Structures are given as C-alpha cells and as structure tokens.
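Thread: Newbie trying to understand structure tokens

Hi all, I'm a second-year student working on a class project, and my supervisor (Dr. K.) asked me to get a predicted structure for one chain before our next meeting. I've only ever worked with sequences, so writing a 3D structure as a token string is new to me. If someone could post the tokens and maybe explain what I'm looking at, I'd be very grateful. Here's the chain:
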Amino acid sequence: MTWYMVVLVFLVLLGAVTLAYQVFRMTSIDAKSRGLKHPHFWGMFALSGEGSGGLLLYLLGRRKYPSNMSMGDRESMDSCKKKAGVSLTLLALSAICLMAVCILKF
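---
Reply by user tm_fold:
Sure, no problem. This is what the structure looks like when written as tokens:
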C-alpha cells in the first residue's frame, strides 16, 4: 500500500469515528432534555444495531416524551450538528477518493 492510500484510510476512519461520536452526543443531549433515564445508554443504543436500527428505535420511542431543551443544550446540539456535517463531509470525500485511487491503481 502506498502512503496516500494509508492517509485516505486514516481519514475515512477518522470521519467515521467523529461522526459516531457526534451522533452519540446529540442523542445523549436529546434524551437528557426529554427526561429519559440513562441518557448515555440511549446514546450508545443509537449507535448499535444493524445499520441505523438503534437510532431508528430511539427516534420512534422518544415520541412519548416532550422535549424541554434549555438554551445551553440547544447551542450544544447546534454545535454537534455542525461538527457532524463536517465529519460526514470528511468521511464521504475521503471514501470517494479512496475508491477512485483503488480503481485507478488496480
């Protein structure tokens, strides 16, 4: 493997890990604002499952609880959304570049 493929693999992994962390943070903040017990558990539960099954189950289950999000939590949520967008962009661009390099190399 050449050095640029190693860098692209690292960027893909970095984008995936940071995106997963931002989803965890957003879910935890939302669960805390809705008064659910164990918000960190719900954050981890949203990351689990086949594909996005855990997140889908969390989104369906939270409908019973109204949101009482404070301004500080809203600012944290907006910050997490922006960071998740950057992470998703990094993940997508590095994955596309890695696929292009693999196709052109082999």
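A couple of things are worth pointing out once you decode it. The two ends are 12 Å apart (CA to CA). DSSP finds four helices and no strands in the chain. Feel free to ask follow-ups in this thread.
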